[in-house]
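Throughout our pipeline, every protein is held as a single compact record rather than as scattered files. Such a record has a labelled line for the sequence and another for the backbone structure tokens. This encoding replaces a full spatial description with a residue-level series of whole-number codes. For reference, a complete record is included directly beneath this paragraph.
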Amino acid sequence: MSKISYVNGNYCEHKDSFVHIEDRGYQFADGVYEVFGVINKKIVDYDGHINRLFRSLKELRMNSPINKSSYYFHIKRLVKINRIDDGLIYLQITRGVAERDFKFPKNARSSLVMIAKGISQDTYDDTFKKGIKVKTVKDLRWKRVDIKTINLLAPVLAKQEATDHYCQEAWLIDDDGFVTEGSSSTAWILKKNVLYTTPLSNSILNGITRQSLIKGLNKNKVRLTEKKFNIIDIKEADEAFITSATQYVMPVVKVDHIKIGNGKIGKYASIFRKAYMEAVKLS
């Protein structure tokens, strides 16, 4: 079956999906995006993701090309026509096509594209059982990381450095030596039965999976502290994790040359995953 994508109101074969060379996303990274996880044909955390999308649009003074209520219809249709049981929908909005000029164009219409991708749940489960390795790198991003923009060169470089060191994710370190977050995830450590994650600010993205996990933790009365942590804390950690729209809750077994716990996933990994799945009503 051909893969079907969505481009500015049209459903078309993925290989024939194009935008104009003067789209401002291509020339200026002038756009925003969201990734919607799909589990058993269900869109995970939809309200959180769509609300964050509209916050990002507002922060960039960008118009939505369609009504807010229409996004769910198109996302669900892509899931159906691509026969996706588990996977993701990537959604991107740019300021649109206009003659190249740094200033906002006056009459451009925002561009909207959506891409569907199937990912076997077995792939996630196999990775979860082993855990992942993390490489720390310097945080080189701009100062409004709370906006989910398509300006992703710094995270790309961080992810590639992690890959070059046989790691699956990078944790970004600020100028004071603290972890901000992952290149495409939220970072967590568990230390003496307390779970730590960086508090919200313009320096991190308010992860939707992060929000849902916190809800699940509160329901299960797990101690959580929104507090910065550094390499010393990582060395003393009993367990570590990342969360994201596609990784959900994923245990970390090594950071740089530091084994977390005994280098294998700990007992809280399954507990936190279950808490998250319950929070999004998938368990």
